[in-house]
Amino acid sequence: MNEKNFEYLRDQVKYSGFGDGLENQLKENINKQPQEFTLQHQATFGKDEVSSALHFKRSATTDMYFFNSYDASLKRDQQAEKMNQSFYVGKDNNITLKEGYNLMSGRAVNKDLTNKEGKIYNAWLQMDFKQTDNAGNYKLKQFHSNYGFDLEKELAKHPIKELQNAQDKSRMLDSLQKGNRQSVTFLENGNEQRRYIEANPQFKTLTVFDANMHKIGNRQSQNVSQSNGQKYDQKVSNDLPGDDEKDHHSGNKVKKSKGVALSQ
Q: Where is the composition biased (Polar residues) (predicted)?
């Protein structure tokens, strides 16, 4: 077995969000030297389940293996129908498991990407549920920096307590950029209220939910300061549950499909 190749793949799997629970299976399959093999993985995000199939293939000229793609199948809480999507794995522009889950849940993920000329640029990615490629995968829309969405500027329009602390603010920004639905504290009329927020780059705003995960509508023309707790205009509608709970992992099988495409 090519030990360096194994160590590279082990780390690649781990940092792609699949943890270290597949290490022994990975080693066993490489030792058998098949032309290709697949590892099964299962994770839970809140009450949602994501089953993944990780695909590996051996080089035609060496004993090295490559982690080429993974197929993800999302089953939402209390929903029988599953959503399937595949993600390519390569040198650049990789989507982690949690990012893939967030994209499949309709949220936006901020990534540093590399174009065909090798130049790095930043963009928000969001799944386009109206367009699929030839393999049936949903395409990804991109919202570049010149599109005009400023996450920090939008956060400042809301009375968010965590903005008052530099460390809390940094953690919140990082979480939102990964596509998470983030728990925050709103200061309203001198009271603290639990809220959940998501980045919404397409409409250059934030999506806000109350403590029961009901969407709250707001007037974007009203700039609400985080320090004075001004009244926040509200309109409630139903939405899917959040995913801020801890994720857990085990194993399961999933139907195979092809890779995701990025659209400008």
A: 219-237
On the question of pLDDT at 123 being above 70, the answer is yes
pLDDT at position 218: 55
**Three-class SS of residue 20?**
coil
Question: What predicted TM-score, i.e. pTM, was given to this entire model?
Answer: 0.80
d(CA 243, CA 178): 12
- Cα-flanking dihedrals φ and ψ of residue 259, to 5°? -85, 165
Phi, psi of 24 (to 5 degrees): -65, -40
What DSSP element (H or E) covers 6?
Answer: helix 3-13
Q: Where are the domains of the chain?
A: 3-147+246-250, 151-237
Q: For residue 1, what pLDDT is reported?
A: 82
Q: How many CA atoms lie within 13 A of 160 on its CB side?
A: 24
Helix ranges, 65-131 (H) = 97-104
- Separation CA 195–CA 184 (nearest Å): 5
Query: In this structure, are residues 196 and 184 in contact, taking their beta carbons and an 8 Å threshold?
Result: yes
Let me know: does 144 contact 121? Beta carbons within 8 Å. yes
Q: Which two tokens stand for residue 178?
A: 């990964």
Alpha helices in 93-214 (DSSP H): 97-104, 151-155, 166-177
- The Cα 154–Cα 142 span in angstroms is 19
Cβ of 73: how many Cβ atoms within 10 Å? 22
How far does CA 175 lie from the centroid of its chain?
A: 10
